[in-house]
Amino acid sequence: MHQKEIEKRFLASIDPFTKRAFSPKNLKAVRQVLQKVEIDVELGYPCEGVVGAFIESIQNQLRSSMPDGSIDFKVSTRIEAHAGNKGIKGLPAIKNMIGIASNKGGVGKSTVALNLALALAKNGARVGLLDADVYGPSQPLMLGAQGRAQVENKVLQPKICHGLQTISMGYLIDPTAPMVWRGPMLGKAIEQMLYDTNWDALDYLFIDLPPGTGDIQLTLSQKMPLTGVVMVTTPQQIALGDVVRSCEAFNKLNVALLGIVENMSFYHCPNCGHDDAIFGRNGGQTLAQSQQIPFLGSLPLNALICSAGDQGLPFLIQNPDHAISKQFMEMAIQIAAQIALLPVDYSAKFPHVIIK
Questions:
Q1: Is residue 29 helix, strand or coil?
Q2: Are 130 and 194 in contact, with CB atoms under 8 Å apart?
Q3: CB 170 within 8 A of CB 143
Q4: In terms of CB atoms within 10 Å, which of 48, 49, 109, 202 comes out highest?
Q5: In sequence order, what are the residues at sequence separation of 6 or more whose Cβ sits closer than 8 angstroms to the Cβ of residue 283?
Q6: For the residues 75-82, what does the mean pLDDT come to?
Q7: Domain definitions of the chain by residue range
Q8: Residue 87 confidence class, pLDDT cut points 50, 70, 90
Q9: Is residue 98 a contact partner of residue 227, using CB atoms and an 8 Å limit?
């Protein structure tokens, strides 16, 4: 088969994570030696942990049109900065910012944010986590991080936990001290944690947002270059209604909605094996369809996730081979793949020039 025909058939195949056909920029080289074809592919998202599944998917798609020869792939990754809110300049040290949001508290947003961040790090990305839930900063406990953040030359130094660069209000105040600040003070505090932290060349910064659509969310959306937001909900109607309002708010602020995660979808009894949908069924999936945004998947209510957070050793670290950990991995790659489809932020490629 001619090389041009091989290229054409590859570009017609579907990326298993973006769910779209490959673009010419993904195809770096095609080499043909007798009946063997070697294809170099460059992806815009990390996939270290699932590269085998990726290759198998493409091989299966091409095998029907190329049945007589073997097809080998060399897969590489180049993560670019993608445009966030219009008119807001990004930070040179951070390529992409991902908000993890829920309008209602108690849906497991912080747990989801932490494990998604860890999942992308395990796939080879450089990842940070900013705990913006200033009224209830839970990330230090779930990460097992103790003590204050260090300050050098008036710049915060992120704590490195399980490969993540992390910062939280919990690193800056007494853990027993109540937060009685008003909205403008809180917004300023979060801005300082973002802009005055010594982030080191991050591909992705996950931001664990507080519940609601108040001052903090407005500050982040209007003053910070959010690449996109992931919504976390439970299946019950009382939570879904709040998520609809959050989706509408982010749409008005021109922040991309990257997908919906349905948490606590059901309880799986470890004794009898019965699945009990205690909060209802398929609410998140139905909402994703109505909002026309990706449904990233459903996570069960599991005691191991709760105990991992209390122990300060995240679930994904404790249980890397668990089925739920594999779900987190797949969700995280889907999020990164959605970001790879967004417009590239070319302003990040040029230095800031001042003409006097």
A1: strand
A2: yes
A3: no
A4: 109
A5: 233, 234, 235, 236, 237, 239, 240, 262
A6: 95
A7: 7-77, 94-347
A8: low
A9: yes
Residue type, 306: C
Spatial separation of the C-alpha atoms in residues 46 and 9, rounded to whole Å: 24
Determine the average pLDDT of the residues in 189-195: 88
Residue type, 24: P
- Amino acid identity for residue 132 in this structure: A
How far is residue 20 from each of residues 5, 8, 257, 341, measured CA to CA in Å?
19, 15, 18, 9
**Phi and psi for 113 in degrees, rounded to 5?**
-60, -45
Place of tokens 């122990």: 311
Domain 7-77: give its CATH superfamily: Fe-S cluster assembly (FSCA) (3.30.300.130)
231 Cβ contact partners less than 8 Å away, ≥ 6 residues apart: 101, 102, 243, 246, 247, 257, 259, 260, 261
Q: Are 203 and 110 in contact (CB under 8 A)?
A: no
Rounded CA separation 143/315 (Å): 10
H helices of the chain, in order, are: 3-12, 51-63, 109-122, 139-143, 183-195, 215-223, 237-252, 283-291, 303-311, 315-318, 323-340
In this structure, what token pair is assigned to residue 52?
């085998």
What is the amino acid identity at position 57?
S
CB 43 within 8 A of CB 75: yes
Q: What is the CATH number of domain 94-347?
A: 3.40.50.300
Read off the pLDDT of each residue in 21-26 and give the average, rounded to a whole number. Answer: 94
How does strand 36-43 pair with strand 27-33? antiparallel
Token readout for 340 is: 């790879």
CA distance linking residue 30 with residue 50, whole number of Å: 22
pTM: 0.91
Rounded-to-integer distance, Cα 25 and Cα 23, Å? 5
